[in-house]
C-alpha cells in the first residue's frame, strides 16, 4: 500500500516538470584562466617559431646515438613440452573399504581415507594397549605427531541406549 502512495507523488505532474527542466537555459560555464587556453601560443609568434625551428646541434647528437639490443638466449626444454611432475607422490593401497566401486583405492603416503580414520579411532578406543600411536603411525604410513593429534582431538561417537520410561515401571 505504501508503494502505491509514493508512486502517486512521484508521477504527479511528471510531464510538466520534465518540460520545465528541458526548457531551462543551460548555465554558462565559469571563465577559464588565461594560461589554460589552448591557443596561448597564437598570441606570441616568437614562441611558435621556436617550437617549429629545427636545432642542428641536437639532430647531430641524435644521429650519434646507437642502441643495440639482444634477446636472452632461448632455453630449449627437454622432453618435447611434456610437463612432468617435479615430485612423484608415493601412494599406498587403503586397508579397508566395503563400498566397492565407491571406495578410495589408493591414498598418498602421510594421508588416510575417512574409512581408515574411523577404523583406527575405533580400534584405539576399544584396545588402546594394542593400537598405540606408534603402531598406527607405522601401519598407515603417518607421522607420529599427526597421529597423536588425531587421537587427542578426534573421538568416535558411542551409541548408548537408555531404557524407556514406562508408566507401569515399579519405583523402588
Biggest sheet: strands side by side, in what order?
1-2
Question: Residue share in helices?
Answer: 25-40%
- H/E topology pattern: HHHHEEHHH
* Bulk shape: flat
Number of helices: 7
Separation, N- and C-terminal Cα atoms: 67 Å
Largest sheet: 2 strands, antiparallel
Q: Indicate the structural class.
A: mainly alpha
The strand count comes to: 2
Radius of gyration: 43 Å
Mean pLDDT metric: 79
Estimated share of beta-strand residues:
under 5%
- Which residues form runs of ≥5 with pLDDT under 50? none
Protein name: NADH dehydrogenase [ubiquinone] 1 alpha subcomplex assembly factor 4
Organism: Onychorhynchus coronatus
Family: Belongs to the NDUFAF4 family.
Pfam family, one: UPF0240
Summary of the model, kept short:
The protein has 172 residues and is mainly alpha-helical.
What does this entry look like structurally?
This protein has a domain at 112-158. The protein is 40% helix and 3% strand. It is built from seven helices and two strands. It has helices at 2-11, 14-23, 45-52, 56-64, 114-126, 133-140, 144-153, and strands spanning 91-93, 106-108. The protein is flat. The protein starts with a helix and ends in a 19-residue tail after the last helix. It comes from Onychorhynchus coronatus (Royal flycatcher). Binds calmodulin. Interacts with NDUFAF3. Belongs to the NDUFAF4 family.
Question: Helices, strands, pairings?
Answer:
Blueprint: H1 2-11, H2 14-23, H3 45-52, H4 56-64, E1 91-93, E2 106-108, H5 114-126, H6 133-140, H7 144-153
Antiparallel strand pairs: 1-2
Helix pairs in contact: 6-7
GO cellular component, one term: mitochondrion
Subunit structure: Binds calmodulin. Interacts with NDUFAF3.
Region (Disordered): 21-40
Amino acid at each position: 500500500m505504501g508503494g502505491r502512495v509514493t508512486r502517486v507523488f512521484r508521477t504527479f505532474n511528471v510531464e510538466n516538470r520534465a518540460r520545465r527542466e528541458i526548457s531551462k537555459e543551460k548555465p554558462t560555464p565559469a571563465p577559464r584562466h588565461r594560461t589554460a587556453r589552448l591557443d596561448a601560443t597564437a598570441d606570441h609568434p616568437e614562441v611558435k617559431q621556436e617550437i617549429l625551428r629545427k636545432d642542428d646541434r641536437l639532430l647531430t647528437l641524435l644521429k650519434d646515438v646507437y642502441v643495440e639490443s639482444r634477446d636472452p638466449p632461448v632455453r630449449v626444454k627437454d622432453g618435447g613440452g611434456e610437463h612432468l611432475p617435479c615430485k612423484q607422490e608415493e601412494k599406498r593401497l587403503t586397508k579397508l573399504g566395503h563400498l566397492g566401486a565407491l571406495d578410495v583405492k589408493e591414498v598418498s603416503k602421510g594421508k588416510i581415507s575417512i574409512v581408515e580414520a574411523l577404523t583406527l579411532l575405533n580400534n584405539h578406543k576399544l584396545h588402546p594397549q594394542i593400537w598405540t600411536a606408534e603402531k598406527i603411525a607405522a601401519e598407515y604410513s603417518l607421522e607420529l605427531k599427526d597421529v597423536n593429534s588425531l587421537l587427542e582431538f578426534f573421538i568416535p561417537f558411542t551409541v548408548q541406549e537408555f531404557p524407556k520410561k514406562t508408566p507401569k515401571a515399579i519405583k523402588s
